[in-house]
Amino acid sequence: MENLIALLVAAPLLGAAVLLCGGRRLDRAGHWIGTLFAAASFVVGVVLFVDMLGRGADDRTLHQKLFSWIPVEGFQADVAFQLDQLSMTFVLLITGVGTLIHIYSIGYMEHDERRRRFFGYLNLFLAAMLILVIADNYLLLYVGWEGVGLASYLLIGFWQHKPSAATAAKKAFLVNRVGDMGLSIAIMLMFTTFGTFAFGPAFEATGDTSEGKLTAIGLMLLLAACGKSAQVPLQSWLGDAMEGPTPVSALIHAATMVTAGVYLIVRSGAIFNAAPDAQLVVVIVGAVTLLFGAIVGCAKDDIKKALAGSTMSQIGYMILAAGLGPIGYVFAIMHLVTHGFFKAGLFLGAGSVMHGMNDEVDMRKYGGLRKFMPVTFVTFGLGYLAIIGFPGLSGFFSKDMIIEAAFAKGGTEGWILGCVTLLGAAITAFYMTRVMLLTFFGEKRWQPDAEGHEPHPHESPKSMTIPMIVLAFGSVFAGGFFSIGDRFMHWLEPVTGHDHGHAPVSATTVTAATMVVLVIGVAIAWTMYGRKPVPVVAPRGSLLTRAARRDLLQDDFNHVVLVRGGEHLTRSLVYVDHTLVDGVVNGTAASMGGLSGRLRKLQNGYARSYAVSMFGGAAVLIAATLLMRAV
Amino acid sequence: MNPVNYLYLAALLFTIGASGVLIRRNAIVVFMCIELMLNACNLTLVAFSRMHGNLDGQIIAFFTMVVAAAEVVVGLAIIVSLFRSRHSASVDDASLMKL
Amino acid sequence: MTSGLAAAATLTSTGEAVQFWLLGTVAVVGALATVLMKKAVHSALSLAGTMIVLAVFYLANGAYFLGIVQVVVYTGAIMMLFLFVVMLVGVTAADSLKETLKGQRWLAAACGLGFGILLIAGIGQASLSSFNGLGAANARHGGNVEGLANLIFTKYVFAFEITGALLITATVGAMLLTHRERTERAKSQREMSQERVRSSHLPPLPAPGVYARHNAVDIAGLLPDGTPSELTVMQTLRRRGQIRDVSDESLADLKALEQRSGERLGRDRADDGLAKNDSAGKDLAEDGEEVAK
Questions:
Q1: CA dihedral A356, A358, A361, A367 (to 10 degrees)
Q2: At what angle do helices A30-53 and A5-22 cross, to 10 degrees?
Q3: Which of A380, A597, C253, C271 is 20 to 30 Å from A582 by CA-CA measure?
Q4: Yes or no, beta carbons of C111 and A608 under 8 Å apart
Q5: Can you tell me the distance from the alpha carbon of A290 to that of A553, in angstroms, rounded to the nearest whole number?
Q6: Local confidence band at A29 (pLDDT 50, 70, 90 cut-offs)
Q7: Domains, chain B, ranges and CATH?
Q8: What average pLDDT score do residues A279-296 get?
Q9: Which residues lie closer than 8 Å to B93 by C-beta, 6 or more apart?
Q10: Chain C residues touching A609 at Cβ < 8 A
Q11: What is the pLDDT of residues C196-246, one digit of tens each?
């Protein structure tokens, strides 16, 4: 069975190679080939999953070593895979959702002449993401980490003829580099501290390591997670990443890649458990991003950007849960999986809406679409109910668990976190209801576009609706399936461990509170957007709304602090270089030149002048001899 | 009189010769001055030979003479060929070793 | 020199002292003249004088062989070589005593003065009050020359051989330096004579004005046999026929000359001379007519 693990990666990798190297002759069949390889990977994943279920809870981890990558004395890096329950969860999510989105893309990208390349990039992403989650050491994980960054860059900028897409791709890549620096530094620190990159030996060595070093490693890992998962302060790229095709937003920037940071933290749980300070920072980052993303999501009129804010916020939940330690690991991953279903479904729904509306993204120009796109409406609606935590649906279970875990942290910290997560739930209910109302309810507000084309909203083809339906199923039932009987907890516990903590309030109270804030959020949204007609042009809004529309000034902050600051720094460094460094160098050269210019006048070429020097020298020699004798 | 006086005389002659080398521009005269210096040295050697009661000094003087003869031959040949190519016997004219 | 027998004397004989002071002055004057004389020849002669004085001092110091060699090699051979080169090069602008390098004379004076003072101070400092003399050393092998020979061919034999090699090298070097490469083959005597015959002028051409009594360009020169050669006159003048006849002019000239000399020397003599000159003038006139024909 171990030998199958490499197939997981090999299938999409081969698909990417075939599609990207195959050239135009594959244009017609490209999307089928891409989907086939993704599905093949999913089948392999399922086979492995069934096999894993057949074994005992402590016997489920598989290892496969492909080859020795960097065999240097004292520096051993292997290309080796490790498939345990955590990896398995990710493998199924990635290949499952990935395959669905491949199918969806067949319809969505139908009219794009570069569809084959698109599927090649998607396959490349799958391969890199799978490497990331099944690597058995940090160095190979880093390969996958960079690979998904590359695929993300290529896909965000897929419509590179649009300058905004090209810029967004560049921005995502650059911001991700900051996080990647954190990961590479963390890996270097690990090597100097533990002497190995492999997960097992490294985690065993945490017991003998000082807390300071572990905190440093943890903070660097957190920086990496922030970059990849769009957490404050490296969150600025995710909103712009929506310039990419919608399936990309669904797969990479909602369901899978952006959750890599959560995976990294949960995977490195052993390190974080031993470094409470780092954990605290993780929790703070998660809490801040949770509110940040939610507030941004409230103000955006672009449907995809509103969903992106939501993604940011939901990942904030996961990071927060992961920062709680063993209390939260399981729930972080569980929310990750359910979020993968409903957020992918929501994005696919948004894509379906855009598909029917001539690629219009402004929700203020939708309205009343439920009659025109019933399937999209129903699937999107189920996803909506799931994300706000409607009782019985996926989000209800997973988010409720996280809120409970936040309270279970205990002490003041627990109360603060609990309240923050509750507040987040309320805001989630508000902005998702807003999206729902603006898009599917009310009157139609669409107008002819600049060329006079009246949009004709229509339902999307089957290739697009079927994945949406499947994901809607996941959104509805996954949470219940995982939670009833604590299935998911028992499944993941051998890897991450679990701790119930000391909840100051009972689970029932928390659930009740969640329901209350949920109702409040929905009610506010209803009063603002449901009862009265929505203006097509956004009102000016309050200061907070305007700030939120500008992504809470994150770009302005980056521009002022980093870009301007960097420019000033470089300018002053250039000045120092020109005046001080060059001045010293040039001054030395000039003084040498001047000195030699004077000295060379002694070299007048006249033998008699040289003879005088020699004669004078002889006289000096005699004087010296006499002096020495006298002394 | 003490034979040391010969040494003083030799020192005087040597200095005069050296000054001549520095002052004169005619290569032939410069060369003569060099010969004068060599002769001054020879006188010193002979005087020392007498003082020490040892013939070795005279041998050295003898060798000096032989070497001086060889030097004159080559030196004058150089002067002649220099004169042929530059039509001048001035040491200042051959001042190519400068920038 | 007689005191050389003493193991360690401090003073030489009075005779030698007198000789030293007299000849020493000459030597210094000669050296100064070598440096200061404007003409290279004078410098060479002054140097020769100094060298001869030094030869005498060698003799006085018991170095008989060196004294003779000094005269033969230095004054005889080397100085003659110098004179040859001086003649070869001739008088040049370099002979001028005017200094061209700025500050050179002052520096030279300063260095010379400093050097001389230091050297003399050094000698004065050395404790050289007594001397051994060469009597014993010269007598050991039966004389100065034998003593030197003994040393040269035993102790210094290698140095001696090497100086021999050096002399050979110097000779070859001098030949190489003064040798001038010929760029084309020299004409043989036969080739030169053949060229001469082809040129239609077997005897050498007269230079203009040879045997002429006049230096104007339109008067032809006379050949050795007394006939005027038109070749000595410019081609242009020949074409125009503007060659003046030698004979008439010379007759008139001669007459005028005779007359003037006769007036100066006196009547009576002049009469004899006039008769003689008349016949000579007739001869010349006849010659001129023949040439004209």
A1: -50
A2: 180
A3: A597
A4: no
A5: 16
A6: confident
A7: 4-86 (1.10.287.3510)
A8: 93
A9: B86, C94
A10: 101, 104
A11: 788 776 766 655 555 555 566 777 776 666 667 777 777 777 777 777 766
- List of chain A residues whose C-beta atoms are within 8 Å of the C-beta of residue B92: 606-608
A196-214 pLDDT per residue, tens: 888 988 888 888 888 899 9
B-contacting chains (≥3 CB pairs under 8 Å): A, C
DSSP state of A433: H
Q: How confident is the model at residue A539 (pLDDT cuts 50, 70, 90)?
A: confident
Q: In this structure, are residues A463 and A109 in contact, taking their beta carbons and an 8 Å threshold?
A: no
CA distance C199 to C201: 6
Taking CB atoms and an 8 Å limit, are C111 and A623 in contact across chains?
Answer: no
Q: B91 and A606: CB-CB below 8 Å? A: yes
State the pLDDT at residue A620: 93
Residue B92's pLDDT band, with cuts at 50, 70 and 90, is confident
User: C28 with B13: CB under 8 angstroms?
Assistant: yes
Rounded (5°) CA angle C55-C56-C58: 65
A160-169 CB contacts, 8 Å cutoff, 24+ apart: A162/A243, A164/A240, A164/A243, A165/A243, A165/A244, A167/A240, A168/A237, A168/A240, A168/A241, A168/A242, A168/A243, A168/A244, A169/A243, A169/A244
Overall average pLDDT of the C62-79 stretch: 90
A555 CB neighbour count, 10 Å cutoff: 16
Contacts of A467 (CB under 8 A, 6+ apart): A100, A101, A103, A104, A348
Helix (H, G, I), strand (E, B) or coil at A72: strand
ipTM of the complex: 0.93
Q: Name every residue in A having a CB less than 8 A away from some CB of B.
A: 600, 603-608, 611-612, 615
Question: Which ranges constitute the DSSP H helices of A324-461?
Answer: 329-356, 374-388, 394-408, 411-440
Buried (b) or exposed (e) across A16-51, using 16+ Cβ within 10 A?
Answer: bebbbeeeeebeeebbebbbbbbbbbbebbeebbee
Q: pLDDT per residue over A214-223, tens digit each? A: 999 999 999 9
Could C156 and B9 be called an inter-chain contact, meaning their C-beta atoms sit closer than 8 Å?
Answer: no
Q: How far apart are the CA of B50 and the nearest CA of chain A, in angstroms?
A: 24
What is the count of residue pairs from B and C with beta carbons less than 8 Å apart?
260
Q: Could you give the percent of chain A with pLDDT greater than 90?
A: 55
- Among A478-482, A558-562, C223-227, the range scoring the smallest mean pLDDT is C223-227
Separation of alpha carbons A418 and A436, rounded Å: 27
Answer whether A218's CB lies under 8 Å from A230's CB: no
What are the angstrom distances between the C-alpha of C61 and each of A337, B17, C4, C131, C231? 121, 22, 9, 11, 73
Q: Do the chains contact at A611 and B99, CB–CB below 8 Å?
A: no
Structure tokens at A106: 């067949």
What per-residue confidence (pLDDT) applies to C50?
A: 95
- State the pTM of this model: 0.63
User: And the tokens for A54?
Assistant: 């057949």
Mean pLDDT to the nearest integer, A41-70: 89
Q: What is the pLDDT of residue A74?
A: 80
| For testing contact with chain C, the best of A604, A610, A613, A615 (most C CBs within 10 A) | A615
On average, the pLDDT of chain C sits at 79
The DSSP string of A113-161 is TTHHHHHHHHHHHHHHHHHHHHBSBHHHHHHHHHHHHHHHHHHHGGGTT
Cβ-nearest to C111 among A604, A606, A616: A616
Touching check for B94 and chain A: CB below 8 Å? yes
